[in-house]
């Protein structure tokens, strides 16, 4: 967006007035606090580390220039947010791998058979398998050097994790020093950090009491807790750790999997008490069923069991396939299911106007999480499953996946439950909602006024190829919207009357100053006169992109003619619709979308409001006597005397059609230096190729 250029944040700190500096510091402090919250508490950062660091540096630079503005809320003073950088990255000495999954008895049989084949084991030869629960937490690596914990890291991408040593030291089951008189020189212990169920319940009760969002599940809570900058917070969360594997090790205390893990227990680690050694398919399946039965009573979340070849020499021989060991597999439990009552179906309207049905459910616990709603996707999905309000529905939730409605228990359907009638009206704005042929989505047609779509539409309206209002960026749009300064596009041109003192009032807003406010009003004023094609494009009619907008502008010539024709189409005038359909390149889908748009009174009302404040310029009519009128032209390579956009606009002004690729239909290719494949295509199709100078000569004087 062009707006960035005049945004006050771009000013050098030295150029800021004190007032601007103060406003910006406040804004930066709030922004950084929000990023910290997302990163540390939700584990869902919305900016890259680099962007975050840039904001922090900016804040520090402004503070350095205006030290008296350093307030108690300054990011530089934030308690617990001390390090300038976030967690340091650590490269794992040995990569932290993942496991292949088995979902059925056949998968497990195949796992055993593959191992036997690989090792060339006779049927009679025993193959011991270590089995243990698969903990649903997050894995961590703890490096001990001469018995002292030196580095503790998260898994990260498996190759590189984050250094969270201080936090891992607060986790129960993690010794700071190996409890042995003769520790190995180097030993990396690997295992799972998890949130015990009772502590998770306490944490969420506390979150709720403090008015904070509860964590979705113990695993997210464990991840969030481990990545606190303040280790005291991690400590207060009372996480635990089970050791089950290792990375680099200068010595191994045993020659079996279970032997090493038991030695880890001797060194001070918690290990899972349900670890055992078994063999054969029946042995593994018995173990699996046994653990599945105990699952609910364990006091921590598990999502399956893990089988590992017990002998380390065999593990060594088996090795790895890509990122997982051939000697181990995770046997996952099936997704948990539950039934509950469908209390209602809400329709949510997305940013782009799509209506999504959401099931409102009587709260039910599935897979350790209380579920109160689930998506029903679209109209067809509801019909296919014949989901009706009042029905008892079957829910499924697997891991992180959003709960799904699998179907309905028909026997429990209450008498009189009627099939769901999908709305034909947008619940957010009352405009009519349509479903295009071949599409599953139902969309609101009231784009210009629909509150659900406001932000997107306004951003489109001011964007570079539409009204191109400099100084009105996405952030400003959202801030203006939030404060009720603007609601629809025409409000932008009424800012002055809607917002009291207008320019002065804007200048006083956070993040604004006299200069930026003046520039904004200048930019708005200069756009009160607008080219027809920009106006049409800015309306955000579905399927009407820039090219179509230009074609429409050229075909109708003036704003008045365009609007009059659109009104006739909306009133059902067949001749007007036929005219629209007849425009080159405009097909049925586009015509229908245009008819839908102008058929919505909310939109035409807004168009009227726009027309009242704008002057729309007539479209440039292509010179019919130009040598390129009606010709298809392709520009390729770099142009030296004009920009690509200029060249395109000029050619279109002369009646040419500018295409992006060369085909048999191309009439002329204008090639600058560096032209490549398009030139070859032109040769192939025998298309005439000229250079930039020849092109300029061709259109000279026109
Ligand atoms: S063994 C080389 N054992 O599951 C394989 N992993 O899906 C090392 N996990 O990234 C992993 N419980 O975070 C192993 N008892 C267990 C486990 C376990 C949970 C996790 C671990 C791993 C993931 C793979």
Describe this structure in words.
This protein starts with 17 loop residues before the first helix and ends with a helix. Mean pLDDT is 87; it is low at 1-9 and 79-84. It folds into five domains: 13-78 and 335-412, Nucleic acid-binding proteins (OB fold (Dihydrolipoamide Acetyltransferase, E2P), Beta Barrel), CATH 2.40.50.140; 89-332, DNA ligase/mRNA capping enzyme (D-amino Acid Aminotransferase, Chain A, domain 1, 2-Layer Sandwich), CATH 3.30.470; 447-527, 5' to 3' exonuclease, C-terminal subdomain (DNA polymerase, domain 1); 531-617, DNA polymerase, domain 1; 632-698, Rossmann fold (3-Layer(aba) Sandwich), CATH 3.40.50.10190. 37% of the residues lie in helices and 20% in strands. It is globular, with a radius of gyration of 33 Å. A hairpin with a 4-residue loop joins strand 14 and strand 15. It has 26 helices and 26 strands. By secondary structure, the chain is of the alpha+beta class. The strands form seven sheets. Strands 14, 15, 16, 17, 18, 19 and 20 form a seven-stranded antiparallel sheet that branches. Helix 1 (18-41) packs antiparallel against helix 2 (49-65), helix 20 (559-570) crosses helix 21 (574-582) and helix 20 (559-570) packs across helix 22. Bound molecules: 2-(butylsulfanyl)adenosine.
Q: State the share of residues found in helices, binned by percent.
A: 25-40%
Number of domains: 5
Largest sheet: 7 strands, antiparallel
Low-confidence stretches: 1-9, 79-84
The CATH topology of the largest domain turns out to be: D-amino Acid Aminotransferase, Chain A, domain 1
Total strands: the figure is 26
What would CATH call the architecture of the largest domain? 2-Layer Sandwich
Distance between the termini: 33 Å
CATH superfamily of the largest domain: DNA ligase/mRNA capping enzyme
Cofactors and ligands: 2-(butylsulfanyl)adenosine
- What integer value in Å does the Rg equal? 33 Å
- Tell me, briefly, the overall form: globular
Q: What is the CATH class of the largest domain?
A: Alpha Beta
